[in-house]
Amino acid sequence: MEIDIRGKINEKKLAFKNTLLPLFEAVVNSIHAIEERGDNQPGLITITLGRSKQVGLQLDGATSLPTILDFAIEDNGIGFNAKNYESFNFAHSTYKEKRGGKGVGRFTWLRAFRVVEIDSHYRDNGSTYHRTFNFEATKRGIEKHQNSPIATNVAKRTIVRLKGLKEEYHQWCNSNAEDIAIKIIEHCFVFFLKKTCPTIRIIDTGDPLIVNDLFGVFTKGHVITEERKIGDVEFTISVVKLYHDREDNKIHYCAHTREVQREKLSVTIPDLDRPMVDEHGDLFSVAAYITSPYLDAQVNEERTSLNLRTESDGELQYGGDISIDRIRAEAVSVIKDHFARYLEKLSEVRLERVQKFVVRHPRYRHLMKYRSEEVRRVPSNLSDEKMEVELFKIQQGLELEVMKEAKQALNFIAKPEDQESFKAKFDELYDKIIEVGGSKLAEYVIHRKTVIDLLEKHIGKSNTDGASREEAVHKLIFPLKKFSDDIGFEEHNLWLIDERLAYHKYLASDKALKELKNVVDSDSKDRPDLIVFNTSFALANGSKPFGSIVLVEFKKPLRDDYNEKENPIAQINKYARELTEGSAKDKDQRPLDIRANTPIYAYIVCDLTPKLRAFAKDAGYRPLPDNDGFFNYNENYQLYCEIISFDKLIRDSKARNQALFEKLNLPTE
Prior knowledge:
By secondary structure, the chain is an alpha+beta fold. It has 4 domains: about 1-210, 2-Layer Sandwich (Heat Shock Protein 90), CATH 3.30.565; about 220-340, no CATH class; about 345-440, no CATH class; about 460-660, no CATH class. The chain is about 35% helix and about 20% strand. The protein has an 8-stranded mixed beta sheet with strand order 7-6-5-8-4-1-9-10. Strands 17-18-19-22-25-24-23 form a 7-stranded mixed beta sheet. Strands 11, 12, 13, 14, 15 and 16 form a 6-stranded mixed beta sheet that branches. The radius of gyration is 39 Å and the shape is elongated.
């Protein structure tokens, strides 16, 4: 049976994350070729990088390294003798089966590269030969094959040239030689542990980079190897300290002495989301490499994944009864045994980071008590915004749990005779409800204190333009040019005027009356600062459209240059007249008569300057008991209006919230 090589190559696509896999396959083939040579001569593998002649550009305008297009892998191994060449010609060859060879690794070459050129000097029966051929995505695969004898004193060497990296893989190929060396170390880690590991060097610009030396620098000889058993199956777990700022903490699952797949250790050990620090203050990461005949048997033919089930998959679903969860747990156990003191320090750093955040956001404080394990899993290197997102998710889960538990508790005390035993039976839940709800209340109380302080600053004397300060006061209480549906509950501060205003049904801020479609039928361009409708305005026939209407008018602090046209009392009366004489409509667009039934409440918030006091007295307004404002009732419009000073607004707001401020030890003056 013959195989169409082009079809074999096209049947699968090489994943972008595996762009360097063709290089790894070639390097491992070279290691095997050196081992197969069978003498004591040192092995040497040279990797030459072939780059584009065009210099790359980064977004900031800086230059980057030219794109790598070719790799040339040269070794002094046994070479492409008759047996090796014959094996290369057979897909799924079993020639290297004992070494884990699947006979398909070379097909990954042509999934990423346009062509592969092989140039080999080898010895056979005492003679030296030179074999060359191309491996291409054709039906035959082998093209331009030549094999001829040469002088016997020519040194054995084989060069595999991976040429023409396909364009879609360019951005996924590491461009820095040291990064490529690190990837080789990761993939071939088990080989580097052996004394017989050949010297591997990378030729790029400048001096050659010796990968073995880099391995020594990174590890500093700190390799811990333990044998662990899961059932009757043995696993070798090698944990290495990597002294390199680009490394992170990983588990590497290996088959036939090479890496197949990896995962971050921070998923299982949250504290390992950052490097550790040794006794000398040097940063290092840990990497666990796991090998076992069991893993050799579970690898796919491309060596890109392992056929391992998870605990959630159930038993024997995937051809083996050892889950990746159990294997991972053994690796984690080894790491915790040997790096406990370092992990403890990281845990302290993580906890301190979260605690500092919680100080500024007290609504999450109780999570340290009720969700400590989940909190400890939040990465400590997140920005404040992302950390809040993670804590908010945990908070939502806890609040849902408290809600369910509280519902069960309330059902328990449905009978009067059960109420006395509630505290004893649900003492812990009682505290939990108070803490979870109380933390959110604490943050909201702090918010109120901050708002009052800001309001005091806005109305104080300054060089700021008065109109700007009027706008600032308005924005602080409710955003300009908005409807109530546009913002959330916590985005306004209507409680400064009246706590009840927070529970309105519909509100318009700085909108002309003619813009209030389906609410008020008016052509007026008048724009109340705030207009509030307190019940639904689309009810069944016979129902009243509004329970009440509230108008709020702000005036800039310290203003005393009003004329008759700018008289705020006249403005409020005009708004009331427009509402009552117009034309609210019901859900069928029929006029609603609100003149006789709907009360209107109005607030004029300003400084009580002499001019304004005169307006109030002329309109028959009476002073409030504290003499810091005026009030009046206009029967013609069912309009009750209060003129309140900024000082009174702040003083009354503080008084209403004083008990809450004192509970949190916040200053009340």
